[in-house]
Structure formats: C-alpha cells, structure tokens
C-alpha cells in the first residue's frame, strides 16, 4: 500500500530533517515565542480568531491568529485530509472495512464504542469523525494509514508543512491532550481551505449533522450549521487546555469565507462569536461589491498566506 510506504518514509524524513527528538525544532520555536516550560500554550490567554476570504486569501478579521494553541479535535481535519488523499489515490476504497485495534477501542470519549477486532466500514469511520468527533474512529484511520499512531502523526506534520502550516505539530490523529501538539488559527484556516480545494468530491461529509451505526443515530456537535444559512462545515474541538474551538466554512452571495475561533469559554459563547464574525465579514464583503473579482489565488499562494496588516480588520 502506498500509504504504508509513505509512513516509513515520513518517519525517516522527519527524524532526519528535525534535530534531536523529532519535535525539538517546533517545540523550541514555540517556547521562544511563548516562554519556557513544557506547556507553552498559556491557558489564561488562548483565544484566537481569524476570518479569511477563501478565494482571495484576504484576511477580513484577525486576533492572535498566529498565537500557538492546542488544536483539540480540529486535529481530525488533518486525519480526514490524509484519508481523503488515500481515497483519491486508490490506497483506500470507500467500501473497505478497517480493523479496530485494542488501542483504538480503548480511546476515551467522545467515541462510538468500538470493540477490539471489530471491522469498521471506512464510510462510517469518516462520518463518525466528522459528525461525532469519535476518537476511536480517528485512531482506526491513523493506524490504517500509518500502521502506528506515531508514524501517522509524522505523516500529518509532514503534510502540514506541505500545506504551508508552519506552526503546527501533530502527535496523534484525534487531538486528545498532548502538550507538544499545537497549531495556530492561521494554520487551521489554511487546512480548511485545502480540504475543500483538494477534495471537493468528499467535502459533502462535512455537511452531515448526524449518522447511524449499529442501529444508533448519533447527532453532531456543530450547532452553527443549523443556526447559520450557508455554513457547510468544518469542525469543532474541545479539551480543557484549549477551550472551545471551531472552524467554519460558509458561502453567501458568491463569497466564501473560512472562519476560525480557538479558545472560546463556552460552546454557546463560541458559537455566538462565530455567527457575529460571519455576519460582520459577509457584510464587509458585500460593501466591497465585486471589487475582488479576478483576484482568486492559487493553491500555492493560499498555502503561503500571511497576515497582511493592510488587509486586517481587527477591531474589537
């Protein structure tokens, strides 16, 4: 399988290219910007927000968008990116059934109660990760593609670099707590844009609000999809150290924007903040009319998106 070879190559490449223990460079970078210590994300100051015009790459709103944050279950966006990539290249088939390991079966909530030795349909694995943010299913996907969680995390981080996500390091496919797993709102926006751009044939999964498995119907966590017309994904996330995270993609009147909130204090406040940002930025685009027509950026230009102070509207 192509992905088994890539898992080995990713591990070798990453260990050779990054000094010391494979993550030292990223950890040093994070500590340099956020103080010494094993946990360089300041839990008292972990709020970030970013809104980007997904076509032009213009930053419409920004607050601490390059601050190092814990991704929590936003991590699963990369797990899904690599899953869709495997499907696209024929390394996986949507009708495949994936073996559930003991480690995967023992993943904590949120999960769908998988048993060791069970064969999980790939389609269900995708749906449960998108809708339910199932940690057991995410681990199954990671182990299928990378053989081990560790190898898959190296693959995830390598792909992050290819997508221009320079401040992101992944340590597991689920986003469960690991103080060396970190990202930024800017990097998450790049990943959200890449998911829709690179896999339009699979992006419909992010519109799902529920799924069924073994006779049980599982509802989703993304309430903004139901509350805001035009939203078609992408992902929620929460661990205690991160606060409440949310990446949203939405379209209105021909304009598509990607918005990221990290470190919300509650689900409701995060969702309300997201809706307010969407309203504000769509209004901002409407006021500009069609002035940005013809300015769509290439995939490479989006991956190298930087915070242009001229284009930032960061009023509180």
Textual characterization of the structure:
This protein is α+β, with helices and mostly antiparallel strands and 316 residues long. It has one domain: 3-Layer(aba) Sandwich (Beta-lactamase), CATH 3.40.710. It contains 11 helices and 9 strands. The protein has helices at 2-17, 24-34, 76-88, 102-105, 122-132, 135-146, 149-162, 185-198, 224-227, 267-288, 299-303; strands at 48-53, 59-63, 97-99, 119-121, 210-213, 216-219, 231-239, 243-252, 255-264. A 5-stranded antiparallel β-sheet has the order 2-1-9-8-7, with helices on both faces. Strands 3-4 form a two-stranded antiparallel ribbon. A hairpin with a 2-residue loop joins strand 5 (210-213) and strand 6. Helix 3 crosses helix 6 (135-146) and helix 6 packs across helix 7 (149-162). The radius of gyration is 19 Å and the shape is globular. Residues 11-39 and 308-316 have low confidence and may be disordered.
Query: What is the β-strand count?
Result: 9
In helices, the fraction of residues equals 25-40%
- Fold-level CATH name: Beta-lactamase
Class based on secondary structure composition and strand pairing: alpha+beta
How many whole angstroms does the radius of gyration measure?
19 Å
CATH class: Alpha Beta
- CA distance, first residue to last residue: 50 Å
Q: How many individual domains?
A: 1
- Uncertain spans, ≥5 residues at pLDDT below 50? 11-39, 308-316
CATH architecture: 3-Layer(aba) Sandwich
CATH homologous superfamily classification: DD-peptidase/beta-lactamase superfamily
What order do the SSEs take from the amino end to the carboxyl end, as H and E?
HHEEHEHEHHHHEEHEEEHH
The biggest sheet, with number of strands, parallel, antiparallel or mixed sense and barrel status, is: 5 strands, antiparallel
Total helices: the number is: 11
Shape: globular
Q: Mean pLDDT, rounded to whole units?
A: 85
Order of strands side by side in the largest beta sheet?
A: 2-1-9-8-7
Taken as a percent bin, the fraction of beta residues is 15-25%
